[in-house]
Amino acid sequence: MQTIRKVAVIGAGVMGAGIAAQVANAGIPVLLLDIVPPGAADRNALAAGAVARMLKTDPAPFMSPAAARLVEVGNTEDDLGRLAECDWIIEAVIERLDVKQALYRRIEAVRRPGSAVSSNTSTIPLADLVAGLPESFARDFLITHFFNPPRYMRLLEVVSGPGTDAATVADVSRFADVALGKNIVACKDSPGFIANRLGTYWLQLGVVEAMDAGLTVEEADAIMGRPFGIPKTGIFGLIDLVGLDLMPHINASLRRSLSPADPFQAAQRDLPLVARMIEEGYTGRKGKGGFYRLNRAGGGKVKEAIDLASGQYRRERKAELPELAEAGRDLRALLAAATPAGRYAWRVIGQTLAYAARLVPEAADNIADIDAAMRLGYNWKWGPFELADRIGADWLIERLGADGLEVPPLLRLAAGRGFYRVGNGRRQALGPDGDWHDVVRPDGVLLLEDIKRAGKPLLKNGGAALWDIGDGVVCLEFTGKGNSLDETVLSLLDETIKLVPGKYKALVIYNEGKHFSVGANLGLALFAANIAAWGEVENLVRSGQKAYQALKYAPFPVVGAPSGMALGGGCEILLHCDAVQAHAETYVGLVECGVGLVPAWGGCKEMLTRWQTEGRLPKGPMPAAAKVFELVSTATVSKSAADARELLFLRAGDGITMNRDRLLADAKARALALAADYKPPAPREIRLPGPAGRVAMQMAAEGFRRRGLATPHDLTVAEGLATVLSGNGADILDPLGEQAILDLERETFMRLARTAPTLARIEHMLETGKPLRN
């Protein structure tokens, strides 16, 4: 098989269209086909409509509008012959074996020999899909099971058959990994593969046991959520998200495929309430509601939940369960509690973990793959075997035995030692053979968690750490809550800048938290403000400016490697790096105006420079100042790394990595490339529009106020921002140095920080996580 240069997706439903969008996000042309609707004037209506809907969908399947232009639409009657142009053909049609096989015969007649063909099926075994088809087709065929939504869910389950060409599997897997950003988990050709086999069992147990225990849906979701590292949707919220109508189909397929002795069968039960909800259109978030709904009667918005006993909706209420208070520190206490909540937690988690132990080697070769499938496919913080280690394998064995439940052989093997350990500085997993096996990363994957497991930091304090990641490159990691930035981070950054020259070649700024950095620690700033320690606040602003300037002009290259949110000060540190290698799902922005402040660690300065020098705007100081005013005053945040390029939070030469696990390796390679002949940038002067420009920006803000889009304090903040971006009283012909703009940032920040409305905004953000409109 050759390099994958073009992909076809057949089936423009939610999954097929989403897969096509992710291929386009990778910069690869994709042909999206569907049937011709009866009597349609536009024979490509289904595929074209899918693309149009995705451009309006939130969260967006496309990372940028430009990606949508890489999707060509067609239909399976007129355009099937174009499959010969494609290196990989993905089938994503209805889950009916007869329909799929009929389509495969048509594909085989037109595809180019050696091109890969895969199905996105979640329920039908590969052996059934290729039964009766030519050997040439079976050789190039595999299952690639994406999870919805394809852009955001990192798991890809790959299933191959005994006749599948190994090189084809390797090529598709490599492309899906590097280009599409997927973490590949190899599954056996067993019912439901891994994630849906275990996840569906867990969900079914969660519903049945909640009904038996007489719990409310809110109580069940509170128990089966955060205490176990599971998203707060829990059981019932997740079913609403996936769709109630999908669950019976998956359950029925697994029931048919699994042996009568499989524990999955015992967990099945007819649920008249669920059947009635589906019949009445209560299919979850995509329908009129599900176990939860938003009642808009009378023009209101009342959150409601269904009563599992009566089947009637009532106002949603918070779960009051004292057993959850200590669950974060002691899961056994929750599981052992002799209360309905404790019994529910045990009945669901105990049986789920035991079932997971049955799936090796039936569904997967090792426990690490099962854990990865549940982390990536269901967003669990810990996979089932990692969770078992937190609870204790011996305790689980004893409790299962006491309840007369089966203890699988693999769980017995873990007695006295658990499922994971660190051996010779490497993470090792217990195998079904009873031996320990290294958890092997794919080629090109470098994880900081592995570096940390094998060594000690070069520098460390309460907010950050510095690690040697090899080949003369060091990595600065933020470690505070939300990776927020404070004086400890700035102090370690200062130490790092002094340490690197002469000892190391380059610096990468990276971490493996959910977010790169949510910005400066607002809690500390509010505390200082409440005790009128204004000197401390100003010192923090000065320290940040000094540290970021030192970073920018350091005698070695600095590469920022963000993922998730990079906001405020987190955005500003990226603006001062020589280069950025960003994960595709990076959301960058200067959001200080949302809390009544202005960027003061050089964000205004750097964005002005970029918009003046990138050549996108007419020459002169005003167009750039106006653009930066627009972005910063509205607290604009990019919707992806590609979008961040459009907004100049990233530059054209900055890189984008699709797979999160490859980000550090890519950033390190970029840093080494820069180190070969590195020279620090030359200081710049910037021309700003002066008083006339300030007035123009203030008038623009006043226009928003007249339309009801800006509050009185928004105008105050906008005036401060306009003062910075215009250079205050600067002459339009007299360029300003960087320090002059930094001084304006700091002075304006301090003036706004002393106002009551700004302090109210900061307090509200800390309490609710949402901006205050005052």
Distance between the termini: 60 Å
Number of strands: 25
Catalogue the unreliable spans: none
Provide the spatial order of strands within the biggest beta sheet.
3-2-1-4-5-6-7-8
Mean pLDDT: 95
Q: In percent terms, what proportion of residues is strand?
A: 5-15%
Largest sheet: 8 strands, mixed
Helical stretch count? 32
Helix share bin: 40-55%
Globally, the shape reads globular
Specify the structural class: alpha/beta
- Rounded radius of gyration (Å): 28 Å
Question: What descriptive keywords fit this protein?
Answer:
774 residues, alpha/beta, eight-stranded mixed β-sheet, seven-stranded mixed β-sheet, 32 helices
Annotate the secondary structure layout.
Blueprint: E1 7-10, H1 14-25, E2 30-34, H2 45-54, H3 65-68, E3 71-75, E4 88-91, H4 97-110, E5 116-119, H5 126-130, H6 135-139, E6 141-146, E7 155-159, H7 166-178, E8 183-186, H8 195-213, H9 217-223, H10 236-242, H11 246-257, H12 263-266, H13 272-279, E9 292-295, E10 302-306, E11 313-315, H14 331-336, H15 340-362, H16 367-378, H17 384-391, H18 393-402, H19 409-413, E12 420-423, E13 426-430, E14 436-438, H20 448-454, E15 459-460, E16 464-468, E17 473-478, H21 487-499, E18 506-510, H22 522-530, H23 534-552, E19 558-561, E20 564-567, H24 569-575, E21 579-583, E22 586-589, H25 603-613, H26 621-633, H27 641-646, E23 655-657, H28 663-675, E24 685-686, H29 690-706, H30 712-726, E25 736-737, H31 738-753, H32 756-768
Parallel strand pairs: 1-2, 1-4, 2-3, 4-5, 5-6, 7-8, 17-18, 18-19, 19-21, 20-22, 21-23
Antiparallel strand pairs: 6-7, 9-10, 10-11, 12-13, 13-14, 15-16, 16-17, 24-25
